[in-house]
Amino acid sequence: MTNFKLESPSPVNNSLLLHKSNHCRDWDVFYEKKLEIKSKSLFSSISNSKILSYECVDNSKVVLIDSDPYIGHLKFLGCQKNFIYIINSISKLHYSNNNFNLCTENGSSSIIPSEGIFSEMSKLRRKSVSIILNTSNYIEDNDNTEQILWSVSKDLSYGYLIDKLMNDLYITSSYKEMEKVKNAIGTTIALSIDNKMSDLIKRNGLFDQILEIIDNKYKDNDFSLKDIAYKVGFSIKTIQNILLKYNVKFYSYLQSKRCIEFEYLISINKNYNLEYLAVSAGFKNLSAAKREFNKKHQCTIKNYLVDSK
């Protein structure tokens, strides 16, 4: 049974904390072998600092911290692919590393990747709630989470709702309610991604552009998603997301276009070499054409030609 855990810092010589950073204390180590947070406090007393942590059924983590002012470092150990880190702070809290500089305060939230080492600084007493969210139940593998990472809540489509839900965690006391809030936050983030993608498609007419490029280039044997990405100026992952919003899989659509062309070519060129016609239709070779042809017609090319006479 998962439960709340109260973590207490180890006793420490405060004079050393005030003097040299290399004498800092390791005080927040959570979750043992999985996603760990290690925070080093450089100048805080050990009295009256509280850390409350909760592990959800899907291995998401909720952490409430109420501590003295400090400078520290946040590090995730054993980081997994589908996790993001959401931090909400009532006091002013800075997060920074070589790539970004974020500040969260007054109950606002920030979303950062659960990888790397981040410097933290709180000049006032820190009161914050964090979620290390397992996104696998909310976000498809193909969804582009880069659209929400390194963002503050005001930049998100549903940022106001994320803030409201994160603030609810400060007063949530039961396991059941904690799970409900966590699930609502995951769903809200998924909606934010979907909304941003829909705006992107609508604004740029990208779906129609992509289909037009495929329709014009499918006969090219080496044609790939890279060619589309280069043409429209978006990443391969974004192209895949756009197509899947309309239930179109790139490779399936591409091969179906080639199969239609191959059917046409063999119907008007009965004396030509089939390998030549398959390559002319865009397939790499005759074997690839046969696989696609059989998948569509449930028969061999030879039988298809006999039946079509």
Short characterization:
Residues 208-307 form the HTH araC/xylS-type domain. Helices cover 39% and strands 24% of the residues.
Write up this protein:
- The chain contains 10 helices and 13 strands.
- It folds into 2 domains: 4-198, Jelly Rolls (Sandwich), CATH 2.60.120.10; 205-309, Arc Repressor Mutant, subunit A.
- The protein is α+β, with helices and mostly antiparallel strands.
- The chain is elongated and about 90 Å long.
- Helix 2 (159-168) packs antiparallel against helix 3 (175-204), helix 7 (250-268) crosses helix 8 and helix 7 crosses helix 9.
- Strands 1-4-5-12-7-10-13 form a 7-stranded antiparallel β-sheet, with helices on one face. Strands 2-3-6-11-8-9 form a 6-stranded antiparallel β-sheet, with no helix packed on it.
Element order: H for helix, E for strand: EHEEEEEEEEEEEEHHHHHHHHH
Number of domains: 2
Q: How far do the termini sit from each other? A: 70 Å
CATH class of the largest domain: Mainly Beta
Number of helices: 10
Radius of gyration: 27 Å
- Which regions are unreliable across 5 or more consecutive residues at pLDDT < 50? 1-46
CATH superfamily of the largest domain: Jelly Rolls
Features:
309 residues, alpha+beta, Jelly Rolls, Arc Repressor Mutant, subunit A, 2 domains, seven-stranded antiparallel beta sheet, six-stranded antiparallel beta sheet, 10 helices, elongated, disordered N terminus, sequence-specific DNA binding, DNA-binding transcription factor activity, HTH_AraC, HTH araC/xylS-type domain-containing protein
